[in-house]
C-alpha cells in the first residue's frame, strides 16, 4: 500500500451522525464555528505562519522568526480590522508561544482586575495599541508557588513620592516571566510592600523595564533569558526572563491600587475589596488554560485516531489486508477515552468561561461572594484538565508507535509545548490542595450551612453516605442520573472521611499536611463530579443535527465509565459500588467502544483542525501518510548530502585504522 488515502475515505463513509452539525456543537455555536474556521484558514494559507520547520531552527533564529510572525499578525489585525476575539483566535491558530500571550492574557487582565479607574484609563489604551508591551513578573528564583514568600521589595520613599523596587537577594531575582528577557517594555512586578519599615503584603507594581526609544534596559535593571527549555522549538519561541532590580524608582501611582492604596503621606489603606483579588489574574488565566486543554488534547487525539485508521499490523497471512490498528480493542481502550475526554473538557471549559464571566461582573460590582468557589473551580479544573491532557498527549504518541516519536508526527512538539501547563499558573498539586481547603471547609460546615454551586450535591450528604448503587446489569449503567450519583457519592464519602480524620488532629494545619495526599485524591474526585455533571448538563440542552446528541451521549458514558473503571478502587473502598457493579461498568465500556469505532474519524474531523494546526504527517486529513513521511525524510536538511560533515574527519580514519594520525 502506498498511502492511507482510501482508508480515510471509507472511514468517513461509516459516520452515523452529521459531521457539520457536530462541528457546530464542538465550537459552541454556528457563529463561533464560522469565526474560528475563517481565522484558521487565514493562518493556514499564509506562508509566514509556516511552522513545520520550527523544531529544526536554532534558538536565535526561532525567536526572530517568532517576532516576525507576531509583527505580521499585528499588521493583519490592523489591516483587516480584526476584533479582540478574532485576534485571540489568530494567536491560537498561529500556535506559537510568544510575548503577546503575556500582554493579552496577563498584563492587560492584571490591570483590568487590580488597577484603579485612573490606572485603567492610562495603561489599557497604551497596552491595547501595543504602545507598551507588558509581562507578568511574579515568580522568583527562590519562590513560585508560595506567593507570600516572594522577596522582591517595593519600599515607599515619601521624599520623592516613589516606590523603590529592589532585589535584595539572588533568590529574589524574577525568574520565568515570559516575554521579559528580550521584548517587554514593562512588567507587573509582584513585590513586598514596605512602608516606614513595616511589611504590608505582596502587591503588583507596573515597572518600566526598557527605554521606549532604543529598547535598552533602564538603569538599575539587569535582565536576560533563563536559557533553553524542554524540547526543540516548543516553548523556546518565548523569551522567559530573569530580572534583577537595583533600587529602581517608579512613581507611587504605578502600584496597582484597587485592592489597597498607599497615600501621598505613605499611609496604607485597605479597601473593602478582599486581598485575594490580588490573585485575580491567575483565576482568569486558569480558566483560559482549562478552555485550551481540549484544544491541545483534541489535536493529539485527531493525529492518533487518523493514524490508527491508516496503520495496519498483523492479521493476514495470505497477502490480504492486515488489521487497522484502530480495530484492536486495546488501542480503542486507550484512544477512545481520550477522544471522549477532549469533548468533556471542551464542555466543562465552556461552562467555566460562563462561571468566570459571571464572577467578573460580580467583582466589578464589588460582589465578592462567589470568588472562593471560582478560585476552587479554576484551580481544580486547571489541575485536572492539564494533567489529563499532558498524559493524554504522551499516550497518543505511544498509540502511534515508532512514527509518533518523529518530530514530523507533530506530537513531540505539542507535548513539549503543553507540559509546562501542569506547572505554570499554579503547580497542579498545589492547586488541588487549594480545592482541598475549600472542600474541608464545605464539609466542616455541612451541619449548619447549605453548600452551593459545585458542592450543592453535598446537601444530600446523608443519602449519599448511606444509599448504595442499584445497578444490576451493564445496560443499567446507561443512565446519566445513576452515573452522576456514583461520582457524587464517591466524592462526598472521600471528603467526609478526610474531614473525620482531620478532626482527630489537635492542630488542623498539621493534620492537613499529614493527610495532604489523601486530600488531593478527594479533590480530584470532586473535580471529576464537576466535569461529569457539566457534560450531562450539555446533553440536556438542545443539540441539533442527525445523530449528534446520540454520539455525544456515547462519549459521555465512555468518559464517565472509563474514569469509574480507572478509579474503581475509590468506588469500592468507599462502599458505594460492589465489585460486580464495577465489572458491569467495564462490560458496558467495551460495548460503548464498538459504538464509537465507526464514528471515530468523523468525531475527530468534527474538531475542524486544519493540517496547518496539526502540523503532522500522521494526522493528515487525507491519510496520505507513507509517501509524505518518505518525502519529508529526504527533505530534511540533514539529507542534503550523502556524506555528512565530519564523516571524512572522524569516521574514515577509524575505518582505515588511521585514528592515531588523525587531527581530532
Ligand atoms: C493561556 C495563556 C497562557 C499565558 C501564559 C502563562 C504563562 C505562565 C504564567 C505564570 O505562571 S504566572 C505565575 C503563576 N503563579 C502561580 O500560580 C502561583 C501559585 N500560588 C498561588 O496561587 C498562591 O500562592 C496559593 C498557592 C494559592 C497560596 O497562597 P497564600 O499562601 O496567600 O494563600 P492561602 O493562605 O492558601 O490562601 C489565602 C486565601 O486566599 C484564597 N485564594 C488563594 N488564591 C486565590 C485566588 N486566585 N483567588 C481567590 N482566592 C484565592 C484561599 O482560598 C484562601 O482563602 P480562605 O481559606 O482564607 O478563605
Ligand atoms: C513555561 C513556563 C512559563 C512561566 N511563565 C511565568 C510567567 O510568565 N510569570 C511568572 O511569574 N511565572 C511564570 N512561570 C513560573 C510558574 O508560575 C511557576 O514555576 C509555578 O507557579 C510553580 O512554582 P515553582 O516553580 O516555585 O514550583 P515549586 O513550588 O518549587 O514546586 C516544586 C515541587 O514542590 C511541590 N510543592 C510546592 N509547594 C507545595 C505544597 N505546599 N504542598 C505540597 N507540594 C508542594 C510541587 O508540587 C512540586 O512538585 C512559568 C513557568 C513555566 C514552566
TrEMBL record:
GO biological process, one term: long-chain fatty acid metabolic process
Cofactors: FAD
A GO cellular component annotation in the UniProt record: peroxisome
Residue positions binding FAD: 139, 178
Active site: 425 (proton acceptor)
InterPro entries (UniProt xref): ACOX_C_alpha1, Acyl-CoA_ox_N, Acyl-CoA_Oxase/DH_mid-dom_sf, Acyl-CoA_oxidase, Acyl-CoA_oxidase_C, AcylCo_DH-like_C, AcylCoA_DH/ox_N_sf, AcylCoA_DH/oxidase_NM_dom_sf
Annotated GO MF terms: acyl-CoA oxidase activity; FAD binding; fatty acid binding
Keywords on record: FAD, Fatty acid metabolism, Flavoprotein, Lipid metabolism, Oxidoreductase, Peroxisome
Domain Acyl-CoA oxidase C-terminal: from-to ranges: 480-655
Subcellular location per the Swiss-Prot or TrEMBL entry: Peroxisome
Sequence ranges assigned to domain Acyl-CoA oxidase C-alpha1 in this UniProt record: 279-440
Presence of the UniProt keyword Flavoprotein in the record: yes
Domain (Acyl-coenzyme A oxidase N-terminal): residue spans on this chain: 18-133
Keyword Flavoprotein applies: yes
Gene3D superfamilies the record matches: Acyl-CoA dehydrogenase/oxidase, N-terminal domain, Butyryl-CoA Dehydrogenase, subunit A, domain 2, Butyryl-CoA Dehydrogenase, subunit A, domain 3
Domain of life of the native organism: Eukaryota
Homology family: Belongs to the acyl-CoA oxidase family.
PANTHER family xrefs: ELECTRON TRANSPORT OXIDOREDUCTASE, PEROXISOMAL ACYL-COENZYME A OXIDASE 1
Protein name stated in the entry: Acyl-coenzyme A oxidase
Taxonomic source organism: Centaurea solstitialis
